[in-house]
Amino acid sequence: MRRPLALVAAIAVSALVLVGCSPSGGETAEEDASIHIGSLYEPQNLSNTQGGGQGVTEAFNGNVYEGLYRLTDDGEVEPLLATDAEKSEDGLTYTVTLRDDVTFHSGKALTSADVKASVEAVTAEDSQSARASAFTVISGIETPDEQTVVFTLSEPSISFLYNLAYIWIVNGEADDLTTAEDGTGPYTLDEWKQGSTLTLTRWDDYWGEAAKNGEVVFNYYTDATAQNNALLTGEIDLITSIQSPDALAQFDNDDYTISEGTSTTKELLAFNDRVAPFNDPLVRKAIYSAIDTQKLLNSIWADYGTLIGSMVPPTDPWYEDLTDVNPYDVDLAKQQLAEAGFPNGFEFTLDTPSYDPHPAVAEFLQSQLAEVGVTVNINTISADEWYTKVFQERDFEATLQEHVNDRDVVWYGNPDFYWGYDNADVQQWVAEAEQAATPEEQTELLKKVNEQIAEDAASVWLYLYPQIVVASADVTGYPVNGLNSQFFAYDIVKS
């Protein structure tokens, strides 16, 4: 049985790749090949509800764990473990029917009880899922039989099925899943050598189409140069996302393939909007206008990447070009600072993740803001420290972070999110957008959100990352677009 629409439309080369035959008709693909992937994003743990981070999504989403629905490479919603969903006329009840041929890697059959437990894990009080707030609309979950799940909502939610795609369905009877797994995907976890590699092995009892390779090994690096060298020496077969354009010249030959896809990853200068002076929109706007974002983008990514003026990438339905709302204008920045009561500037601490490209971005901002009298003290912290200090404890003035998800502008409607932006109109529009009767109504409301957060400079959206995948020329079938950091590995082949 084939998995639905295996991204062939999104990845042109994969349409040519079939196990047992070469894309060019020459050498045959290695059916049991071991695919070595280079990544800078090692999981913090193996759970999507306990702070596993971007790395666990990259390695496990769609590979080890699956959802009721799947987001395709271009953000469309497809059934996966669900076969059907019926929505009541009032939009408050969704009756979802499950596939009847799915088992977990442990051998246990998938049932509606597992779906209920998986959703409740995401919405639990101790959940660290960034998407938990999207499911507060659920008022009840019933399991009338093993193949049926009934969701009752407190209010209509136009994005409900889309949001369900973010929930991994796990064995509800499994114990601790922070160091182990029990999913339904085409791979099982073989071994996680923390600080080094994470190995996935093809699962022969998978309900769908078997993975086209025998195993996938994620090789983790803390330094982009070391990762590039690993590709050059054949230690790895591909890099999921190149971190600097300076690295591309060494791969610009027939031995490698360079692919540029679309990205949803935004580089943010995020203020703590709860604390002075960043509780003043005029101060935030001044900081924004003091930063030459085009120069920053060029310095980090040369001719790659995109400037954006809000949290919304061009792939989202409610995208607008808002880059002119807070233009680069040093005189304007000085004027705004003076109007806000800071004619001589001020000083703040920028908590900066230690991995690329954040340190270079921080130094650029430090130099730029000095021109308007603002002193930036850079405090370099690890990814673990960032999660605890910034995300959990909100103990920061400003920070740098990349946000990988699409459709995440709605987080500005949550005043409890780590950046603390609190605008009643935005909260109302986000709520109304979720209850919109049509996608067109939802789009118009979220455009209003975009415009307001840009006008308030709720954050500084520095740029949208490019998505550049570099692979050995004998490797094909990999995804090239960077939606939510997912990286489906099952179609990758090596000849």
Key structural traits:
single chain, 495 residues, alpha+beta, D-Maltodextrin-Binding Protein, domain 2, Dipeptide-binding Protein, domain 1, Dipeptide-binding Protein, domain 3, 3 domains, seven-stranded mixed beta sheet, 11 helices, 21% strand, globular
Helix content: 10-25%
Distance between the termini: 25 Å
**Quantity of strands, as a count:** 20
Mean pLDDT: 91
Shape: globular
* Poorly predicted runs: 1-26
> Number of helix segments?
11
Question: How many separate domains make up the residues?
Answer: 3
Major beta sheet summary: 7 strands, mixed
SSE inventory with pairings:
Elements: E1 34-39, H1 53-60, E2 69-71, E3 77-79, E4 82-87, E5 93-98, H2 112-123, E6 138-145, E7 148-153, H3 160-164, E8 187-193, E9 197-202, E10 215-220, H4 224-232, E11 238-239, E12 256-261, E13 266-271, H5 281-289, H6 293-301, H7 330-339, E14 347-353, H8 358-370, E15 375-381, H9 383-392, E16 398-403, H10 424-434, H11 439-455, E17 460-464, E18 467-472, E19 475-476, E20 493-494
Parallel strand pairs: 1-10, 1-11, 14-15, 14-16
Antiparallel strand pairs: 2-3, 4-5, 5-7, 6-7, 8-9, 9-10, 11-18, 12-18, 13-16, 13-17, 19-20
Helix pairs in contact: 5-7, 10-11
